[in-house]
Amino acid sequence: MDHVVMGVSFEECNRQKLNYLTDGKPSAVLSGKFRKDFNIKLDDPLHKNNSWVGQLAKLLNLEFENRAMNGTGLDEQYLKIHNDYNRGLILKDDLVLIGLTSLDRMIDFRSKEKITTLMSRNIPDEVSSKLLLDIANDDYLVFQYFKTLILLNSFNSKMQLKMQPMTITILDKCLIHLNNPHTKQFAKDVWNSIIDNVLLPEEFLKRPEVNGVQIECGFHHPPLESHIELAEKIYNQIKF
Questions:
Q1: Which of 27, 45, 113, 209 is most buried when burial is the number of CB atoms within 10 A of its CB?
Q2: Contact in structure between 97 and 103 (CB atoms under 8 Å)
Q3: Counting Cβ atoms within 10 Å, is residue 231 exposed (0-12), middle (13-18) or buried (19+)?
Q4: What domains appear along the chain, each with residue ranges and CATH number?
Q5: Is 77 exposed, middle or buried (0-12, 13-18, 19+ CB in 10 A)?
Q6: Cα–Cα nearest to 37, from 73, 71, 72, 3
Q7: What are phi and psi of 170, to 5 degrees?
Q8: How much is the pLDDT for 205?
Q9: So what's the pLDDT on residue 137?
Q10: pLDDT for the residue 58
Q11: Positions of the chain with pLDDT under 50
């Protein structure tokens, strides 16, 4: 919904985003109004109601809270759910849905004020970040990610928790570049052990097309149409 915040068309928003990815220089709108107004809050109705979870809650006629935050990785999601449960903010009868993010997001505890998730490719190239830079390899990221999947899956003894991949071929894509056979086998075993708590397999994530070209946002996020379509597929095929 970034184009709504920026006050431009979906196509123009994507053009500016793609230009930013190409030359690294945000447009006046992208760096001005967007940066100023784009402040996601947990109860922001624009993002809450248009998310796939919002669409699903509407179909199920259930109230829901959107606790998703942009840019977070799986470790941060786990930590927040753990803390919310222990604070009594998540109850045993609650249904908790998790969107499985990309693997290259690492939690950074160096800030005392808040949790920060770094994209591994965007870790600052400085002495203080040397350890993060050293461990940001495919095997480490996969091992860490799938350990966290085990932890998330274990929450099912305390609440109703389901997971939904947010990208296509999340498993195959992360395994193809691994050098360590032990890591690859570990990831496969973990995925097989949690599959019963995955809502829909990845082949359901294909995004809408126009003239054979998939529609997606300039930063590669799925458009509103994909959120609606995913919610409808979950509703039609899964019984909660």
A1: 27
A2: no
A3: buried
A4: 1-39 (no CATH), 43-237 (3.40.50)
A5: buried
A6: 3
A7: -60, -35
A8: 66
A9: 76
A10: 92
A11: none
